[in-house]
Amino acid sequence: MKKYNVWVIVWVFMISCATLNACNETDEDATASDTAATAEFLKQATAADIFEITAGMMAEDQGDKQKIHSFGQQLVHVHSRTSEALTTLARRKSVQLPEEITVDKKRLINQLEEKEGQEFDQAFTEVQITAHQEAIALYERADKEIQDAEIQGFVDQILPVLKEHLTEIQQVQTEVISK
Questions:
Q1: 54-71: per-residue pLDDT in tens?
Q2: Which residues, 6 or more positions from 54, have their beta carbon under 8 angstroms from its beta carbon?
Q3: How far apart are CA 38 and CA 85, in angstroms?
């Protein structure tokens, strides 16, 4: 009977070790997954900031209406600050950030460069509405998927600002189109 009890204890111990090891691997997978999601978010958010800063500068130079100039200045100011915060976070997380806008955003910039005055204002507002909807979706996805406390804090701070920008540019678009 004693041999049987020893084997049961050994068997239970082995199963426990295997279970603990599997749990540890799951935690490591989750951490690796969170690290990858964090890196991807930081890269995409930085690319969005680069685009917003570039488009904002264009609005200051090419816009027809004062509201477009003002919104452009606001974009440059806010996204320069968020870009700095993203750079700091990326350094802490050892993530290499992009230094240029993406190819699809570069295409939009090229299209905006060809426009002036009222035509620019209308195209700019359309581009900004789409860009802010995309940015909000990116930040909301990060809010759900990423567990990192620093990233969560950043997302919680910036997401309301992006939503405010979207509301603002939608109002500007209504005014620009109606006049």
A1: 999 999 999 999 999 999
A2: 101, 109
A3: 14
